[in-house]
Each structure stands twice: as structure tokens, then as C-alpha cells.
Amino acid sequence: MKPSLVEILAPRLAALDLDHRLKLAREVIPGHIVFTTSFGIEDQFVTHSIFTQGLEIDVVTIDTGRLFEETISLWEETEARYARRIHAVYPQALPLAEFVAEHGVNSFYRAVENRKACCHVRKVEPLSRLLAGASAWVTGLRADQSQAREGVNLIELDNDRKLVKLNPLADYTREAIVAATEAFSVPVNELHAKGFLSIGCAPCTRALEPGESERAGRWWWEEDEKKECGLHVGPDGRLTRGPAPEDPR
Ligand code: SF4
After folding, report:
1. What is the DSSP letter of 218?
2. What pLDDT was estimated at residue 147?
3. CA–centroid distance, residue 130 to ligand 1 (Å)
């Protein structure tokens, strides 16, 4: 059987650094490639690499309507720094209004089902729209971010979405990324210095206590096995372990 693109690229990518991984992917993978950023430090490193190399990869964010003000400021700062626009997709107005009208504006604190539904209307559905027609999806995921992300590979097939998923920081450590962003003066979210290592929506993210794992500040009120990103919820509402196909971060 002929080896797939993923099988061919995986060993080649493993030997490269971030810049060369993205460059190679852009050279070899035809069609529209999308990078989804939520402006965490990993995403900023990837954005820096795409913009400074002038790669034809769309940098897109999901504006859930509940982002931190610091994240919005970094969005603007990043556009100014690289003189490039970072496009956004938004939740659909009517389903969002109906959800909030039925459950309340902060219903995610009351039930896991509400949180899943909120993540679906604010993130999962917009993500589906922004990836429609793309041939590849680039993320800033790292395998050592959490137990649930241990299985993240440099490159894999997203069978549900029928696209290639590239995680060019899968084998990077946070320390290496911090060092690189400092070396290249990449703008980073002010919240990192305040103890927020993983940054999502404002009401669902808190600063970490000493000794807590990187993603402990996300949906902190939920039990661990239920809370790995809301974007892990499939169309059937089922939670799955491991990196979700929909999870951009
Ligand atoms: Fe809603 Fe929180 Fe999910 Fe953001 S992270 S979409 S506010 S439940």
C-alpha cells in the first residue's frame, strides 16, 4: 500500500524545528491551511513563525464573546507587530441568543451539560465553519500540557474533518517556547505573568496555584475526567479522552 502523506511527513517533520516544520508543511500540503490561535504563548510562537516567514497559512481566532481584555489587547498588538490581520469567526447570533435566554449567561458553572453546550455554540460550531474546505489545520498543542494531550502527534489525520492536523509544537516543552518567544521578542499575553498558563474564556479560566498542572485553571470547578477541553465533546455530546479532533488548543 502507498504510504500516506502523514506517514511520509511524520519522520521528516520530527527532525526539524518549528519554522522548518511549517515551511515544509506549506510546501507539501496543497490547498487552504488554517492555524487557529487563542493567543496563548504556544500560539504566539506559531503565529510569529508563520508571519515572519510569510507563509500562506491563514491565522484565525474564535472570538467567543467571553475573552479576557488582555487577550483582545494582545490580538491588536500582534496585528500591529506583524502588520497582518488575524481574522475571527464568531458564534452564530441566533443559537447563542437562544442558549443564553434559556440557560442564563453563566450557566456553565451549574452543570457540565451547560458548559458543553456553551462551548459548542461559542467554539465548536464556529471552528467547524472556519475549517470548512481546509486541507490542513495547524494547532499550538503540546503533548506535555496535560495527560489528555499525551497522544498529540506532530502530524495526524483528522478523520472526522477529513483534513491533516499539524501540531508543530507537539514535542516542545513550555520552557523551550518561553525561551524562544523571549529571544524573538514575540508579544505574549500579560496573563501568563499573573499565573495563567493556559488561557481560554475569562469566566472559565483562573490563575494556577503553586504545583498545579498547566491546565488546572481551565473549568476548575469540574472533576478532572470531565473537564479536558469542552471542544472534546463530539456531536453526540460524548466526552472523549486524548486530543479531540475539534480542539484547537
Ligand atoms: Fe462558554 Fe466557558 Fe466554553 Fe467559553 S470556555 S465557550 S465561556 S463554557
Report:
1. B
2. 67
3. 18
What residue segments make up the domains of the chain, in order of their start? 5-193
Reported pTM: 0.89
Q: Which atom of ligand 1 is nearest to 116's Cα? A: 8
- Strand arrangement, sheet containing 163-166: 87-89, 58-62, 33-37, 136-138, 163-166, 155-158
Could you report the per-residue pLDDT of 144-179, keeping only the tens digit for each? 876 666 789 999 999 989 999 999 999 999 999 999
For residue 204, report the distance from its CA to the centre of ligand 1, in Å: 6
Q: Per the structure block, which three cell numbers stand in for 24?
A: 515544509
**Are 77 and 46 a contacting pair, CB within 8 Å?**
no
Looking at the CA of residue 114, tell me the nearest atom of ligand 1: 8
User: For the residues 29-34, what does the mean pLDDT come to?
Assistant: 97
Torsion, Cα of 215, 220, 224, 229 (10° steps): -60
Q: What is the pLDDT of residue 148?
A: 66
DSSP designation for 205: B
Q: Using alpha carbons, select from 24, 28, 50 the residue that is nearest to residue 37.
A: 50
Q: Would you please indicate which residues are annotated as catalytic (active-site) residues?
A: 229
Ligand 1 in reach of 166 Cβ (< 6 A): no
Decide if domain 5-193 falls under CATH 1.10.20.10.
Answer: no
